[in-house]
Amino acid sequence: MRWTPGDRGNIEDLRGRSGIGMKAGGLGIGGLLVVLLLSWATGIDFLSLVGNGGGAPTESVGTSGTSGTVATTPEEEKLVDFVDAVMGDAQATWRDLLGNRYEPTKVRLFRDAIQSACGFAEAASGPFYCPGDHYVYLDLGFFDELRRRFGASGDFAEAYVVAHELGHHVQSLLGVDAEMRQAQGRNPSARNDLSVRLELQADCFAGVWAHATNKSGRASQGRIELESGDLEDGLRAAAAIGDDRIQRMSTGHVFPDKFTHGTSEQRATWLRRGFDSGDPDACNTFQ
Ligand SMILES: [Zn+2]
Fold first, then answer.
1. Alpha carbon of 224 to ligand 1 centroid (Å)
2. What are the distances in angstroms from CA 208 to CA 31, 133, 134, 159?
């Protein structure tokens, strides 16, 4: 892939503010308990007096884009620039496709753990999109895991992960995810099947973006440009993180009724369909 670093306008860097201890807002669990007990016993809200709101959920999803100091490496900073470039390019593509129906969002970078409108999440759960606050959440450590555990390397493999999460944002804007949740409520036995379809559509949407990047001359305009071999990296990544593969790795068995993302073959197929067509209408996985 050819790309140029931008101004990080697509990133909200929370690496210095997130972490395992964030739940307690830096007080530590013991300190938090003492403060809560004191508040309960005296009727005075000591939690609001210790600053920072004591790590209440609303505080940790604050909208400030600034980060505390964070120990990092040149490689990690390059990865931040890369995620920013991918997100910027993919968002520009969706703005072209959807016009004023598109609303921009950002990637919230975190380390280890984060409080989102969708709840408390740890890095181990992987990157995710939260429809409640419309942000994409990503711990850069996931890319290491993608390489080491799933054997998926190459920058397009990483770009595909970002584009897939942005695909969930597009679904949210189009109302697809709300429709699906209603359908799941009406028919609980179809829960897994519907969730797989939602995931495969996000893969297809990632492909739609990749299609747009597959034109020569884009790099000279500061846009992302696909090079030969890139798509294969993405297809390998899609196949690597299919449910069947993950299940086999962790349990030695495959349980299709527990699939929530689709099989390796399905994921690669829908990514390819988006890539070949460049058309979101080709991504109707619900038919
Ligand atoms: Zn997904």
1. 22
2. 50, 24, 20, 13
Question: What is the CA(164)–ligand 1 centre distance, in A?
Answer: 6
| pLDDT of amino acid 124 | 75
Q: What is the DSSP letter of 140?
A: T
Token readout for 216 is 């020569």
Cβ distance 97 to 84 under 8 Å? no
Regions in the chain scoring below 50 on pLDDT: 23-27, 46-67
Other residues' Cβ atoms within 10 Å of the Cβ of residue 271: 28
Going from the Cα of 8 to the center of ligand 1, the distance in angstroms, rounded, reads: 23
Q: Which residues have CB under 8 Å from 267's CB, separation 6+? A: 199, 200, 203, 238, 239, 241, 242, 261
Asked if 178 and 243 count as a contact pair (C-beta separation under 8 A), the reply is: no
Encoded tokens for 80: 């931040």
Q: How many whole angstroms from 199 Cα to the centroid of ligand 1? A: 5
Closest CA relative to residue 108, chosen from 71, 144, 136, 79: 136
* Residues, beta carbon < 5 Å, ion ligand 1: 199, 202
Q: What is the pTM of this model?
A: 0.80
CA distance 221 to 114: 35
Alpha carbon of 175 to those of 95, 238, 254: distances in Å?
Answer: 16, 24, 32
Q: How far is the CA of 127 from the centre of ligand 1 (A)?
A: 8
